[in-house]
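fwd from M.: "can u put these together and see what the complex looks like"

so here's what she sent:
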Amino acid sequence: MVEVTLIEASRRAVLQEMRVDSRVWVLGEDVARGGLWGQYQDFLAEFGEQRVVSTPISEATIMGAGLGSALVGMRPVIEMRIFDFVMCAMDELVNQIAKVRYMFGGQAKPAVVVRMPHGMWRNSAAQHSQMLEAWFAHLPGVIVVTPATPADAAGLLVQAIRSDDPVLFFDPKDLFWVTGEIAEPIEPIPFGVARKVTAGDAATVVTWSAAVPVATKAAELLATEGIKVDLLDLRTIWPWDQAAVIASVKKTGRLLVVHEAVEVAGFGAEVVARVVDQVGTTNLKAARRLAAPRVPVPFAPPLEAQLRLSPEKVVNAVKGLLAA
Amino acid sequence: MSDAGDNLRRLTGLYRMMARIRAFEETALAAHKAGEIPGPLHVSIGQEAVAAGICGNLRIDDRLTSNHRGHGHAIAKGADPRRMMLELFGRAGGYCRGKGGSMHIADFSVGMLGANGVVAGGIPIAVGAAQGLKMQQSDAIVTCMFGDGAVNRGPFLEGLNWAVLYKLPVLFVCEDNGVAAFTRADTVTAGPGVIDRAKALGVAAISIDGNNALAVDDAAQVAVTAVRRGEGPHLLHVRTYRITGHTSTDAAAWRPAEEVEEARARDPIARLGAVLAERGVEPSELGRMIDDARAEMAAARGEANAAAWPEPAVAFEDVQDTGAVAWSKSH
């Protein structure tokens, strides 16, 4: 076991896979210089400029060229630098990558990984802070990965690179320098398996990505008051671990979904709807969401703080749930 | 003598290919009008010399990306018109299992990486495929077909720039039929056009008469050889004319009748037929090739009409491996 930051864990995951599979290559802005976040540090020296390709600021072609290479048998890691820039490559992602396998009747399996560092980080304002993972859970044909720990980022990235399905990998910017232990070699973590962070009977709290450490802190605070919750980190929102969530809610009778993204039509709505459908209203005392208001992310720290989650907000939401 | 014989065989092959493309699309158009083919249908009647002249110079392991008007490109690359017709009809046995239709014909077994419903959508894919082939040290090349409308989309600039930067084996083909959907391309395109745009980025580019199959064939031969030799991307600007409308239901009645008549007089199949006749091919031989093509496509239409629809379960297949069918239905 070795203690590393989340971003270093993800660097080691790609490094490991590139060493064993010559079909894997990385493309994106500045990746030959190590990438904006240092996630490809020293790759150029080891793999050369054909497999570690610094590109022009041409998001559409970064995305589309990754796909084209996959159609001739390569396995690209497509780096978007910051999630928000994927808007410039939406045709290539939504109309092409997510569709080619289906609309060509299974002739092609586009084995691409798209890395999109997302979320609020150091007051980056409205175009560098978004969390729109729910959009992509809505899109048939892709996997949506939302890790929160170094071990999960590494294991899910290895799984993503080995997957024949297109994988959208939401790197959590705010957690890049959080440390944790990883085992080497890095073993793949299957998609669609939640991680139970804490166990308890009072309520079920479901979360993912940057909301995980906030909810974890909240669970610790609640535990000091004798309130123990089942805290589940989904890790991937498509597929998502419905069995684990439903089993937990059947036990607790109360559900809170916590995410950084906007609450309206967020993925929490899907989780709540599914749980209501599967658990039924007789055994379900309350099912709620705690998420961001429907406003763009503002710049000034006190304004941004209005949108951010906090352990206190989660604690209060759980207590409200218990009173229901 | 044998050179002349080879050349005649080559031209005869071009003629036969163009006749088959024409017959396929005329048959599809009739079937669409008869209600046998659902959905939109974009035909390229009058543009056959482009598909046949370009693709006749490609190997089977060369890759091709195409656009929404791509039936000719697919047939010329070696796709089977029977399976194409089944796909147009949405039937089992079609190339895409009835999930793509006319705009999404693909046959990866002959290097045809897919038609595309989005203008310029194939350009980034083509340069990426070329980059992959280069990494694999293959000498296969990628040909990227797009229309005059595509040069006003961002991926055109991005893709050409990209192909030059990494010196990729891509042949860009701008199939210029003069009209972007219902709008004359020159009324929405600033500056002198695609050739100058390509040259500004360092892409070797020439313009040719796309209704002259010999000219297309010659230019393609030169360009394909250069691209395969590793000389970087090339662009052919191939000027042609779309005899029919944008889709099967568009009469394109806004065009002056004289303009269309004048274009019919430059019909690429008739022109190549005249060349072949000059070189001693009997008119009956040319007629037989046309008849054979029509019979082939009529049989394909008959087979498609008789074919079964896909099983309903097919709608839930080919989405993704993870979760497979269970995830695609309600959950």
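replying to her w this: The mean pLDDT of chain A is 97.
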